[in-house]
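[09:14] KT: can someone run the structure on this one? pasting the chain below
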Amino acid sequence: MLPQPFTSPFVSPFANKPGFNLSPSFKPPDQSKVPQPHEVGLPRYLNYLGDLTGCGHWRMLWPEQLINIRGDGCSSSLTSMVFEPNWYKGLRCIKIQRQASKAQKDFIAYLKSIQKECGFKLIYEVDDVVFEEDIPDYNKFKAAFTDNGIRQNCIDIINMCDEVTVTCKFMRDLYRERTGKQEITVLPNFVPNFWMGHLYNKRKVVDAYETHYRKPRVLYTGSGAHYDVDNKVGGKDDFEHVLQLVIDTRHKYQWVFVGAFPPPLLKYVQNGEIEFHPWQNLLNYPKLISDLRAQVMIAPLQENNFNKSKSDIKFVEAATLGIPCLCQDLVTYSTAPESLRFKSADDLKFKLEGILNYRNRKQYKENIELLRNYGLTRVMENEENIGCHLETLNTPYNSLERKYLKRWNS
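[09:31] RB: done, structure tokens below
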């Protein structure tokens, strides 16, 4: 039995005091006069993610993080479909990333059915080509897009949306041709300073050059999708035209591969003549690239619609760190200066020799800052870059209010 008198710890000690009265005559304060949190008036956005790896971060999650941190809006992301109309009321925009299945098509049709009532905009985001005829046979992921039903689902979903965002002009034009959709906007990839840009260190790049000038380090980072790993086309992949150059110069240069390497190089990886590092998670990737102390990076590609629709990420990442990247001379890398684009293996060989010749060390060191300066123009935190994302979310396609997107869509 509890001692008397007993006062419950869950009851206010003032509950029985004079003046404490919650009678029907009590009137709460007028909420219209009560200061509201900043978030109450912010636009709300919702993303439906197609993946949680690199593409999901570059295109959806990193922009979302910056929008929330800056206080430009309240953005959230989901991977599960929500069939509750009240959930969508008050949203300004829903962005859908690379949805392609029948169930996803039916879900977008549901969103379309409540769009007028809820008042949101629908955007389809895609950063890769999904059309079978444009995906090279050596790409091991092509099998996911050989079903005509998947293709038609993509086309139908795209045409249900108000706008489509892609990474480059070639991709925009290809999607217009393949889908008939005209409201397609170029939204380039921008690199977050908090992810990679903070690792820039000119002294580190110079020291690496001086340390390895006798056998310079040449770096390639890329997934297995660039290589004919299943020997479907006899090794004619993105690396085939420069493969012999790598073999012939393996004693002159220290070739370094991250993530994967062409199958014909296996014996050189096994005997240690060519250096290989397994793929890293997204968090650790920038530090690995910086710590490998490469003097130059390369980005070879075959010429096809799939590769011409790619983003210039390899060049932008290298420039962000102040490292030159020799890129295939395709529209993909039109942002790179002519001096850093190559057409053939002989051209690549010539430009490697020019960059890495120790007699040209003064020019190499001067170019570090020039590259870094370009990298800074592609930092996501820049007002004009995160502004591109905000303009797609907040304004109609081709709106006159869009000032930052004009640069990429003229």
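[09:33] KT: thanks! Residues 1-16 have pLDDT under 50 and may be disordered.
[09:34] RB: yep, looked fine to me
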